[in-house]
Amino acid sequence: MKQANAAAIYARISSDQSGEGLGVQRQLEDCRRLAAERHWVVAAEYVDNDISAYSGKTRPSYERMLIDIEAGRVDAVLVYHLDRLTRRPAELEHFIDVCTDARVDVTTVTGDIGLGNDNGLMIARITSAMAAAESGRKSARIKRKMLQNAQMGKPNSGGARPYGYENDKVTLREEEARVIRDLALRYIAGESMNTLARWLNREGIPVPGKAPSWHVQTVRPILISARIAGIREYEGRELGPAIWPAIISLDERRQLLAVHQSKSRGGGTKKNRYLLSGLLRCGRCGGVLFHSGPPNIRRYQCQLATDDSTCGRLYINALKIEGWAAAAAIMRLDAPGMTSLLAARVTDDDRHTAQIADVMKAERALTELAEMLGAGELSRAEYAAARKVAAERHVEALRELDRATGTHVLDGIDPDRAALTRSWERLDLPRQRAIMRTLLEYAIIHPRPRGTRKLDPTRIEARWTV
Ligand SMILES: [Zn+2]
């Protein structure tokens, strides 16, 4: 590749539909980037706007460039595509002659066609003759235009109306935006996509598109889209802020994705169907206990691994251990904050739901810190410092929740355990699981002593997070 000390960039657009000169701007940008990549010095940029290379009308900048080439002021020409230069074969021949005489290379962004050799010349001639191939080149330009749209945070043209927004894809459709907010906060608070779909159907929320009812497949794309956080995505990449308003905050999006990821890691919904799935360990071998068995004799049991890393010799009755865990959880919930977390069943007040999510988030943070300390990733001092911050955030989140619910969980603890129990039973399983996970790190189940049929509490060695 020859060195260019005085490259010329030529750009032209035949009909500048946007009226913003974007077409030319794009061509210039790409040509400049190509020049930079090759360490070429750009001496001049020649721009003709709104003049067709077909029409035969004079193009002032093009003519000026030819003069500069002939005068030896240019040693290379950069153009986005050959059809920007000319579409008339006769004109192309003239251009080639001028460039050949002046020993000037012509390079295009799209095809990297050099006119400096025979092959390049041939390709250039064919390209020029193939005015019929316009559509292909147009699609490349349209793609480029779409990318630029995306970079500017603008929506795609065409396609279906995104849920939560009007047909212009920018203006909020309030009633749908509210639904999205609810969905996001409930999801963060631990409800599954499946539960959310059922909730939407129960509430009679209109389904987007032509689908008869809400499904996980309708809910998921809405929830995990960057769009609802006001982020412009292009081909799966997040490019930056969009011009439309966000429905959920960036922080909420992070939480939402974290929840989604941890659920996906868990291997889908099946694994998480039971209250204590993943939370029980075998007291013989340390293996995780898996749920098994028909409804009347459900159990959590150690599964024999093919590599003998687990024993497969221990199980516990599911109903009994779940009953014990729920009761123990309720006792632990009888503590500041957790009371209102439990009592505050899902409401349509999205601010309230957001505050519950904040409390849960703060509690998760505390748990994570404890885990990091346990895993040796944090020193005692680091843990103490981080925990102080997290604990303050926790208290603050609880205060916010208090203000919203009008309860005073920080002053007086609700002593009515029966009410708590009833509240617990009214929660759906995903929410119960979410609460259980914030409370119980894990429980080790020890082997059953001979002769006992009842659940012996000494078999259970629970490790609570708070
Ligand atoms: Zn075992």
TrEMBL record:
InterPro entries: DNA_bind_recomb_sf, DNA_bind_recombinase_dom, Resolv_N, Resolvase-like_N_sf, SSR_resolvase, Zn_ribbon_recom_dom. CDD domains: Ser_Recombinase. Residues 6-153 form the Resolvase/invertase-type recombinase catalytic domain. The lineage of its organism: Bacteria, Bacillati, Actinomycetota, Actinomycetes, Micrococcales. It comes from the Bacteria. Residues 162-266 form the Recombinase domain. This is Recombinase family protein. Pfam families: Recombinase, Resolvase, Zn_ribbon_recom.
